[in-house]
Amino acid sequence: MRRATYILVFFLGTAAAYHNETKEFVVPLDHFGFQRNETFKIRYIESDEYWNRGNGPIFFYTGNEGQIESFAKHTGFMWEIAREFEAKIIFAEHRYYGKSMPFGDKSLDNEHIGYLTSAQALADYAQLVNFLQGGKNLKPKYPVIAFGGSYGGMLAAYFRMKYPHLVQGAIAASAPVHMFSGMVPCEVFHRIVTSSFNVASKVCRDNIRQSWSVLRTFVANKTNADWLKKEWNLCVAVNDTKEDVQDLIDYLQGMYDTLAMVNYPFASDFLLPLPANPVRSVCQYLSEKLTGQKLLEGIGKVLQVYTNYNGKGECVNYKSTDYGNLNATGWDYQACTEMVMPMCTNGVDDMFEPMPWNFTEFSEECHKKYKVYPRPEAAWLQYGGDRLQAASNIIFSNGLLDPWAGGGLLSSISDSIKAVVMIDTAHHLDLMPQNSDDPESVKMARQEHKRNIEQWIRNFRLNNA
């Protein structure tokens, strides 16, 4: 299947159209066993508009938890440097996401979901790269540079580590490779979320911290719960049950997490439509000390910015577990198996209710949902965690406003495992399209990325002359 189209990437606020084709590639259901012989198709987006077919590089985005079009649209850095490097661009869709479903609509059923792992996805990508090189285990003709952000950044790094004969180097943006059990304190993520709100307004932070107890007390009264449904535009009123109230609390905490994560200096619709500097934007409604119903009115205004900034939102479904514009339903299964990232709050160093990390409880919840138990050491054993001394040619970039930076690599390990730290940026902003509001740290990071890409390509050509 081929489908020619154009992807719009906003460059300095102006839409730039890049010609591309959406294609499919056949991969095994199971790369590591010999009992299952089924195959299925993963999608990939390809653009050779600027490609030097003689020896131009292949820029390969290791797709993560969502439909591949979203990552292609928001990874403008790859598109913008393709002409300079005469590169082919590939965005590969991760199995079990988007339309790359091994069992169609039943792929996420418990009896079929077991082949959703990072290792299987990387093996898909390895076969696709081999195909792009001409197949038949030929000597690679084109240098391949992997790119990825967030979980995709982890995959880009792991791709280089596991398949160094196929991948010359990797740009791993906002990749929380240290976020696994025992590597960083479980409270680090929400401390950074709190810090972002604290920078915007200490009063805003304090109002949020006080809001949890106010909310719990308020909704215990049915009349209040009905008022809240109307004021907050909730799809259903909050019943006075532990589960209902906790669903709303969890939704609000996820809202603050997301606002901190995508706290970009320009308006963006990466996860959902939001204004520029969204943390500062919502804190205007909580900038003075509020109590009782007035505090909940302020939180309601924050909620409306989060759910209906573009005026197209419907009622707020606080029971939903979706991921905004990303169709990332399968991620919960991955978090319940190999991507176990402990998180907790204490209500003192952060603005949330105290919630300790309880692996036993987490494990039982996973088993209840998927009939599996998590393996907290799996990712560390497969990929090295914080022991990456044997790896090479990977750039780990992190913005210190990003909560995921708490699990990122923030210090260089060697001359070829480098950390690029941006003090004033959020989640993988360096991979996004250029914008006139980009901070200098992002501009400098992109130049560093280009220097390393140039060096990796140069070394590939010297070694394959």
From TrEMBL:
The main place the protein resides is other
| Annotated GO CC locations | lysosome
GO molecular function of the protein, one example? dipeptidyl-peptidase activity
What reaction(s) does this enzyme catalyze?
A: Cleavage of a -Pro-|-Xaa bond to release a C-terminal amino acid
InterPro entries xref list: AB_hydrolase_fold, Peptidase_S28, Ser_carbopepase_S28_SKS
Which SUPFAM superfamilies does UniProt cross-reference here? Answer: alpha/beta-Hydrolases
Spell out the subcellular localization from the entry.
Answer: Lysosome
Among its keywords, does the record have rRNA processing? no
Gene3D superfamilies in the record: alpha/beta hydrolase, Serine carboxypeptidase S28, SKS domain
EC assignment: the record states 3.4.16.2
Write out the GO biological process terms.
proteolysis
Keyword presence, Protease: yes
Q: Where is the signal peptide?
A: 1-17
**UniProt keyword annotations, A-Z:** Carboxypeptidase, Disulfide bond, Glycoprotein, Hydrolase, Lysosome, Protease, Signal, Zymogen
Per the entry, what this protein does is:
Cleaves C-terminal amino acids linked to proline in peptides such as angiotensin II, III and des-Arg9-bradykinin. This cleavage occurs at acidic pH, but enzymatic activity is retained with some substrates at neutral pH.
Per UniProt, subunit arrangement is: Homodimer.
- Similarity remark: Belongs to the peptidase S28 family.
Q: What is this protein called?
A: Lysosomal Pro-X carboxypeptidase
Species this chain originates from: Papilio xuthus
